[in-house]
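Protein modeling request. Please complete all fields; requests missing the sequence field cannot be processed.
Requester role: graduate student
Desired output: 3D structure, token encoding
Chains: 1
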Amino acid sequence: MSQKDRFKAGFSYENDEIRAIRKKESKITRNIVRFFALILTVVILGGGAYGYYYISNALKPVDTKQTQTVEVEIPAGSSVKQISKILEDNNETNNPRISVYHASQVIGMDEHPGQALRKKKDASVVVATSLVRSKECEAVIAPGSTGAAVAAALFGLGRIKGIDRPVIATPMPTVNGITVMLDSGANSNSKPKHLVQGALMGAEYAKLLLGKENPTVGLLNIGEEATKGNEVVLATYPILENMKTINFKGNVEGRDIPKGTVDVVVCDGFVGNVILKFAEGLVTGLTQLIKDSIMNGGILAKIGALLIKPALKPMAKKVDHTENGGAPLLGVNGVFMIAHGSSKAKEIKTAITIAADLVERKIIEHIRETMEIEGAVKYEYDE
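Delivered output (383 residues):
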């Protein structure tokens, strides 16, 4: 065999060996690729199945027939992670009615509302209001600074057409049940048109709250006569007399509120807030006086207190301001509840219940319809 033939044979042998090695390597590579492809497929399918299971469970509606109450305590200042852990420990992680949104800032009671809103874009009241505006939720509960709450609602939700200033509608306990007083703090310097608009909104709220088809409306004044009062009240009276959608009963005095003379009492926010705080303080003071009299009295006083206690409990509950939870801010494009900055869990729970009821009863739509029917913006009474 020539040298040339031997070279060809050796070269051919080496090629066969190389091809065998490469074929083996290629087979190993394909097996590795198949293995990782299989693992990736399992991961994707498993992740998809878990995601579907998680989402489908999270979106399951809450059993409306369930009456069990779950008490969850969340300390002030808790982070999203801490809140999520608390919910998980109470088996509420998958509750579709509970979502946690982070708000890194808080507006203090002593801060100027307008300035605070401009500086603190991530304040809790701003974040909550933006969720209503984006339709992610349907109501805001705002305990804390009333001024900041009103400003956040105005800037975040806007006013209902025909409403110049929103009002706070507070349910006041009376001997006849409930009287709605508004405004109780949103506007301290009102014009006649603001009182008229408040009367229209108060009447609609009273229909839903009291279940009355044609609630009576009174204008708070220093006397019952139409000729009494300051310029604002004197200018408001004849306009209310000519309104189409409200049952105006004329002027009422401060003493008529606890009597329940009318279903709705209209006043400016300065007067309304003074009356509200006086009523709260009066109840607290009288309660303390009664307790002191019993403790300082003899054995007969204590026995008498025990005997009358069952009869006093319903009355005490009726005049307890914590039973109301809060008051709606009427006139903005969304349900907005304002509560005391010192509100406890009981008051927040009540405020949530009231807010849900107002959403269900479509209070905003009712006010819009009333403003369209009445055409209040056409009246020239704001000069």
